[in-house]
Amino acid sequence: MPVRARPVSLVAALLGALLVLVACGGGSGGSGGTPAAAPAPAATPPSPAPGPGRTLTVVATTNVWGSVASAIAGPGVEVRSIIQDPASDPHSYESTPADAAALANADLVVVNGGGYDDWVEQILAADPALQSRTIEAFALRGDQAQENEHVWFDPTAVKGVVSQVAERLAAVEPAQAAALRERATAFAGRVDEQAARLASIGQARPGARVLASEPIAQYLLTTAGVADATPPAFSEAIENETDPPAATLAETNQLVASRGVDALVFNPQTETPITTQLRDAATGAGVPVVNVTETLPAGQDYLTWLDATRAELARALGAPA
User: Fold this and answer.
1) For residue 62, what are the β-bridge partners?
2) Mean pLDDT, to the nearest integer, of 223-247?
3) Residues 65, 68, 73, 75, CA torsion sign
4) Are the C-beta atoms of residues 278 and 213 closer than 8 Å to each other?
5) What are the angstrom distances between the C-alpha of 292 and each of 110, 232, 285?
6) pLDDT at 54
7) In this predicted model, what pLDDT tens digit does every residue of 140-152 receive, in sequence order?
8) What is the structure's pLDDT at 185?
9) Compositional bias of type Pro residues: which residue ranges (predicted)?
């Protein structure tokens, strides 16, 4: 029997139904008969810390420690120093939210410690994970009984920071371990050379005595073998930002007026009316004034700054520079 042809209307209806089924089975994203886009792939879970070759970041509280860290870290590591202004007093620095964010995101943090940069200690106290990525210079000082916080002039503390920077970064980037340790060894050798040159000052001028507007250079003077003749009550008052007792101030001024000291070590970043008067009195009495700062001047790294400070002290005391 010949096959009967289907009516055209029925064929059209079947084709229409087929198209509707195809459209419905193509996904939920289509509309108006437009084929739907392919479904989006499943979200990728967050990746762990970036792998080898990423840019490491080191954050230091001052540019002194930033310079030290940068010399060891080498190329490919971003080093940021929070306090850089050579004209301001780092003791009075107030941190910002941007500082806290930079510290939180750093692979390594270098702080002075000892109450010097206490603003960062508050940030560290709130973040145990950040504490584990932090190097404190004060904890590495040679004389643990010494409470002076200006440890960037202590060769033992500086070399301790150098060693820890190299080892901490080597643990993150093992491929750079040899280069990091090589730079650390070379830098530590330069620190030893500066310490030896400082010691030659006391050898050339035995019995030399200096007065200090504040105890910023205590480690420097100890290494140089130069006596600090500053009355302790004067140093304590200046450190605590109070006025020295009248008798202590008179004793200090007399040391200058009588030229009972060979030089005045002056910190221009913590000037007060009392220390400014002391500097002026020293200049008037012919006592050399040695400026010693707490942060690096523009264009100088740690070693050139240390050498310039050493040379100025030597010249003031009449020793070979």
Assistant:
1) 83
2) 96
3) positive
4) yes
5) 22, 19, 20
6) 67
7) 999 999 999 999 9
8) 98
9) 42-51
- Residues composing the chain: 321
Residue 22 has a CB neighbour count (10 Å cut-off) of 10
DSSP per residue, 240-308 = TTSPPPHHHHHHHHHHHHTT-SSEEEE-GGG--HHHHHHHHHHHHHT--EEE--SSPPTT--HHHHHHH
Q: Measuring CA to CA, which residue among 105, 109, 158 is closest to residue 132?
A: 109
Record the tokens describing residue 119, joined without a space. 């603003």
Q: Nearest CA to 229 among 246, 205, 213, 247? A: 213
Percent of the chain beyond pLDDT 70?
83
Amino acid at 70: S
Which run of H or E residues covers position 81? strand 77-83
Cβ within 8 Å of residue 27, ≥6 positions away? 36, 37, 38, 39
The pTM for the full model equals 0.82
**C-alpha torsion sign, points 151, 223, 266, 162:** negative
DSSP structure class, residue 88: S
Please check the confidence at residue 16 and state whether its pLDDT lies above 60: no
| CATH pick for 56-193 out of 3.30.1360.120, 3.40.50.1980, 3.40.50.150, 3.40.50.2020 | 3.40.50.1980
Query: Three-class SS of residue 232?
Result: helix
Task: Read off the tokens for 262.
Answer: 């060979």
**CA dihedral of 290, 291, 293, 297, whole degrees rounded to 10:** -120
